[in-house]
Write a structure and sequence with these properties.
Length: 215
């Protein structure tokens, strides 16, 4: 769910099982595709699901979204950190336990008929532990991260990857320039070349206005 939040720029209320601010995604809201063929999530083999080439989420009543809007991703190229394979693994887990279509996507079955639903606090705890383990080389501390950080992290990764801000706004379902506060100008790849560009582009002559004396 952490990976899905990152790739789909999700709010905590969308990728965890809480209705505090948005409607959580449910089993029925996901789709997997192989080329132009939509896979039947009930009958496709596990191997077929994991080999899917494209995955998507349907936004129903999520905050700031258009009802019925679909946003998808192709494979990332990584076996683990891939939005398509993450969706596939969720589907496989849920259907193994006969989950209903209305089961929150962030549900885990732990045996004996028991299950738990992931909460924002669970995500925040995991992120803080990961940051503490990786150390200060990340450039931030455990206190700086929470379940809300993944939306900002995904947006910033897109910006550093050269994706146009209008496209980022569409992917994140932002309706205004509020998105800009998620984009960190402290990201080294983003700022790497700006000083050189400012020096080379800073040599210019302004077009004189009418008050400027002529020569």
């Amino acid at each position: 769910m952490i990976a899905l939040a990152f790739f789909f720029l999700l709010r905590p209320g969308e990728y965890t099982a809480t209705k505090s601010e948005s409607t959580p995604f449910e089993f029925k809201d996901v789709q997997l595709w192989q080329g132009m063929t939509r896979l039947d999530l009930a009958t496709a083999s596990d191997a077929a699901l994991l080999a899917a080439s494209f995955g998507s989420l349907t936004f129903d009543t999520q905050k700031g979204s258009v009802r019925g809007e679909v946003i998808g991703h192709a494979r990332s190229g990584d076996q683990d950190l891939c939005p398509v394979r993450c969706i596939a693994r969720r589907v496989i887990h849920l259907r193994q336990h006969n989950a209903s279509p209305n089961t929150p996507l962030a549900t885990a079955f732990i045996g004996g008929g028991r299950s738990f639903k992931l909460k924002p606090a669970d995500i925040t705890k995991s992120l803080k532990q990961a940051v503490a383990f990786l150390g200060p080389s990340l450039g931030f501390l455990p206190a700086d991260v929470s379940a809300r950080s993944l939306r900002a992290a995904g947006a910033n990764a897109l910006l550093c990857g050269g994706v146009d801000t209008d496209v980022i706004r569409l992917l994140g379902r932002w309706r205004s320039d509020e998105m800009l506060r998620y984009l960190h100008t402290s990201a080294e790849p983003l700022m790497r070349d700006y000083a050189r560009q400012m020096l080379s582009g800073g040599v210019f002559t302004l077009i004189p206005n009418q008050d400027c004396p002529s020569f």
